[in-house]
From TrEMBL:
Protein known as: Villin-1
Pfam families linked: Gelsolin
GO molecular function, one term: actin filament binding
SMART domains, per database record: GEL (SM00262)
GO annotation, biological process: actin filament severing; actin polymerization or depolymerization; barbed-end actin filament capping
UniProt domain Gelsolin-like: residue ranges: 4-84, 125-197, 244-319, 386-465, 504-571, 607-683
Source superkingdom: Eukaryota
Key words of the record: Actin capping, Actin-binding, Calcium, Cytoplasm, Cytoskeleton, Repeat
Keyword Repeat tagged: yes
Entries under InterPro entries matching the protein: ADF-H/Gelsolin-like_dom_sf, Gelsolin-like_dom, Gelsolin-like_dom_sf, Villin/Gelsolin
One cellular-component annotation, GO: cytoplasm
Species classification: Eukaryota, Metazoa, Chordata, Craniata, Vertebrata
Compartment(s): Cytoplasm, Cytoskeleton
Length: 695
């Protein structure tokens, strides 16, 4: 903003901000259904109140011109949102001064420059102009001494690889952007090995006296803080602003009434203002002023991030703070529909598994590593050791046990491994722990290359069903050991779901009439006979799969009975007739979830996650532990050089993430451990243009 007017910034200067100014940023991105528009106004730390007010006003006007589609953001220097930072891949540079003091965004090829930039951050880089003095330095960060024709990158002795490489990317972007490629870059990684460059630094900064300071770690919001979401209704009463708390987590979508405006406070980490379609124009206009007023009233720092959202054009970040977010008339990609609750039927989609290699995004969408034609080995945990399971009984899992399932498949001629840890609902804590420890041992035997998947009983992922070829049977309790402590029940009932060998699973349910459901096939076994009960809503394919299951769970004669034509003995075995779910299954549409990537750090005993918006393979650094959340599964990517503590805490961190997730997530969501260099297709498919040879 210059003299309260908007003046375009030359493209070469994108990413450079004067601390004395305010800026407006418009960002448009093509999406699968149209485009996503974001509007930001950025406040420099030395900008005037008038300019800040004008910037907010321009954003509101632009929003009107764009018919209320954009998501609007208030950004404060040094506290920018992850979305904002994602636009400037090489980093953000803060320059001293501003328009008022005669500074302009200069064109390229300026060489009479002398400045020192303090570079911070690993995933999101920023460089701040600091005093030309050794006092500005510390041991843990990267500093760039910019002398126009020469750029010297000085790496603190405690910097990690990622910080050094991000520093270099920034130095190169200054050279190529501002200097037209005509500048030399020198790097000091250890002072004693770079006497010539140190000589130049001493000429500019003088001799160094005394020790360097330690780096100050950034204060970041941890996951517990972000999970504390509260919704407030905001309205005017007799010229006073009234803020009334409506709900805490988990929030549901129906709390948002179209006639009103709301503030959603995410633990003081970020403030969202939601503007209902039918709220008054005055209310809509006042959104930012109200948010800033709210921040002051709560005593939050003035740098708190604000996002203003319009009814019907909500951002992915906002939607995921709610337990469920449903869009009008939205179907899933590949004909897949999320369903909920007891009367939910997933329409199974036939898809061609031979396409997985050519189209990794399909592998990700269908959550399949391959076509399930590899080798399967199964062990049971017995006396805390691995006991091989008889291959004849592969696919039968008992709720009182824990199992390890090793799946081996070939990809470009060499073996790859997936190791499933299946935890029974009634297994002891010791067995669950032993299962995890044995998994680590088994992984070591295979060169630490296995992808480890934690599977909770009843939440088996798609690929797990496929590798047992329609023979997956889950018994509620008991054990598959030879010496069984309790006798098997005489009467058992199994619910069978699936249409072919790739997607079928039979689950034991209580042997009572109320367990039945008209949409499925059930297998009832007694000491004399085995019934196949076919609900009105089941298909021929489902009946065929149930026959296969019946042969596994019972050696008795099989009787097929149709719903409504049951013999008296059938009801007797179930302890009498009772009402059961019989309505045609409805399909509830739930928004397609945008996958999200986070850098995890557990250094300080506080669990901190930094989101990388618009992620790509480049964002996976070898000293990282990264978490990829695809809603139905959580992947943990372990870099080769990540530290042992974070590596060992990774699973705990993922559980913590699910537990604290504002949307009230299912704690049994599969957690998948992936190691750098051994990524399976269902992981790489979430990334655009994955390069298998990068590392």
């Amino acid at each position: 903003l210059q003299n309260m007017k908007m003046v375009p910034v030359p493209e070469k200067a994108y990413g450079t901000f004067f601390e004395g100014d305010c800026y407006v940023i418009l960002h448009t991105k093509r999406t699968s259904h149209g485009s996503a528009v974001d509007l930001h106004y950025w406040i420099g730390k030395d900008s005037s109140q008038d300019e800040q007010g004008a910037a907010a006003m321009y954003v509101t006007q632009l929003d009107n011109v764009l018919r209320g589609n954009p998501v609007q953001h208030r950004e404060v220097q040094g506290h920018e949102s992850e979305t904002f930072q994602s636009y400037f891949r090489n980093g953000i540079i803060y320059k001293k001064g501003g328009v008022a003091s005669g500074f302009k965004h200069v064109e390229t090829n300026m060489y009479n420059i002398k400045r020192l930039l303090h570079v911070k951050g690993k995933k999101h880089v920023s460089a701040t102009e600091v005093a030309l003095s050794w006092d500005s330095f510390n041991k843990g960060d990267v500093f760039l001494l910019d002398l126009g024709k020469v750029l010297i990158q000085w790496n603190g002795p405690n910097c990690n690889i990622a910080e050094k490489s991000r520093g270099l990317a920034l130095a190169r972007s200054i050279r190529d952007g501002e200097r037209g490629g005509r500048a030399q870059i020198g790097i000091i990684d250890s002072e004693k090995d770079s006497p010539d460059l140190m000589q130049i630094m001493k000429m500019v900064l003088g001799e160094r006296r005394g020790e360097l300071r330690d780096a100050i770690p950034d204060a970041k919001a941890d996951e517990l803080q972000k999970a504390n979401v509260r919704l407030y209704h905001v309205y005017e009463k007799d010229n006073d602003l009234v803020v009334q708390e409506v709900a805490t987590r988990p929030l549901t979508q129906d709390l948002l009434q179209h006639e009103d405006c709301y503030i959603l406070d995410q633990g003081g980490f970020k403030i969202y203002v939601w503007r209902g379609k039918a709220s008054s124009p005055e209310e809509k206009k006042a959104a930012f002023t109200r948010a800033v007023g709210f921040i002051q009233a709560k005593g939050y720092p003035s740098s708190t991030n604000v996002e203003v959202i319009n009814d019907g054009a909500e951002s992915a970040m906002f939607k995921q703070l709610f337990q469920r977010w449903t869009e009008k008339d939205e179907t899933q990609g590949l004909g897949k529909v999320y369903t909920t609750g007891k009367i939910a039927k997933v329409e199974q989609v036939k898809f061609d598994t031979t396409q997985l290699h050519a189209r990794p995004e399909l592998a990700a969408e269908q959550r399949m590593v391959d076509d399930a034609s590899g080798e399967v080995e199964v062990w049971r945990i017995e006396d805390l050791q691995m006991q091989p399971v008889n291959p004849k009984t592969y696919g039968q899992f008992y709720g009182g046990d824990c199992y390890l399932v090793l799946y081996t498949y070939l990809r470009s001629g060499r073996p790859h491994y997936v190791l499933y840890m299946w935890q029974g609902r009634h297994a002891s804590v010791d067995e669950i722990t032993a299962c995890a420890l044995n998994a680590i041992e088994l992984d070591k035997k295979h060169g630490d290359e296995a992808v480890q998947v934690r599977v909770t009983m009843g939440k088996e992922p798609a690929h797990f069903l496929a590798i047992f070829k329609g023979k997956l049977v889950i018994y509620e309790g008991g054990t598959s050991r030879a010496q069984k402590s309790t006798p098997e029940p005489a009467i058992r009932l199994f619910q069978v779901r699936g249409t072919d060998e790739m997607n079928t699973k039979a689950t034991e349910v209580p042997a009572r009439a109320s367990s039945l459901n008209s949409n499925d096939v059930f297998v009832l076994t007694t000491s004399q006979v085995c019934y196949l009960w076919c609900g009105k809503g089941c298909s021929g394919d489902e009946r065929e799969m149930a026959k296969m299951v019946a042969d596994i769970v019972s050696k008795r004669d099989k009787h097929t009975i149709l719903e409504g034509q049951e013999p008296a003995e059938f009801w007797e075995a179930l302890g009498g007739k009772a009402p059961y779910a019989s309505e045609k299954r409805f399909q509830e549409q739930i928004t397609h979830y945008q996958p999200r990537l986070f850098e995890c750090s557990n250094q300080t005993g506080r669990f901190i996650m930094t989101e990388v918006v618009g992620f790509c393979q480049e964002d996976l650094d070898e000293d990282d532990v990264m978490l990829l959340d695809t809603w139905e599964e959580i992947f943990l990517w372990i870099g080769k050089a990540s530290n042992t503590y974070e590596k060992n805490e990774a699973i705990a961190s993922a559980k913590e993430y699910l537990k604290n997730h504002p949307a009230g997530r299912d704690l049994a969501t599969p957690i998948i451990l992936v190691k750098q260099g051994y990524e399976p297709l269902n992981f790489t498919g979430w990334f655009n243009a994955w390069d298998p040879y990068k590392w």
